Amino acid sequence: MLAYWPKYYFFGIAIFLLFSCKKNEDVPNFIQFNNIVNDGILYSLENNCYKFSEYENKYKIKVLGLVVNTFDSYRTDSTINFVSFNINSFIKSSQLINFSKDSLSVSLNSNYKVFPTHFKELRQFIEYHSQFKEMELEQAETSFIKTLVVRNPRIKMNVKTNEVLVEIDRFFEYIIDRTFLLITTDKSFNILKIECLEQVKPHIPPPPETSKG
Fold first, then answer.
1. Sign of the four-CA dihedral 93, 150, 107, 23
2. More confident site: 126 or 130
3. What is the pLDDT of residue 131?
4. DSSP 8-state assignment for residue 139
5. Contact 140/113 with Cβ under 8 angstroms?
């Protein structure tokens, strides 16, 4: 009986390694997610995913702040609705991906000047804003487009593809707008498609009519 033990032992090890490798393939590494978020940010800037003001679009060269991995986890705003996407269903069937603090690096093209920072620094507005002084001079011909806050993404594993949901908030003393990107990848996390999710504008009822005396 003992003569068969080594065979079963190595068979067990092989099964363990097989399932371990399969599990590792289902979890993207940091570099893969860094590339996904980096390309997502660039896509969002180049494809009118934000509601930039006329001043923010004045010049081609743009300067922005960037915050990643904020202190709070992914929170769902119950008032958010989309034209053809169910965020509540997606969240139930996906998992949150946590980056280690200050680990994400973003490399955009020459049209953008990026200042990475910490979320708490945004509260110290005067000190934070001083970083941009040299970029806001009129002769510099640059537009300041405020700060992008990248939330920890969620990932949904499908049979043949993966879907990554990234929320990017624009911050200027408070969150002024939210943009959601849905990034589809193959099973090796190579990007297949990036799209900005169009939100349904909330219905704001008109004020009640005043009675005429």
1. negative
2. 130
3. 66
4. G
5. no
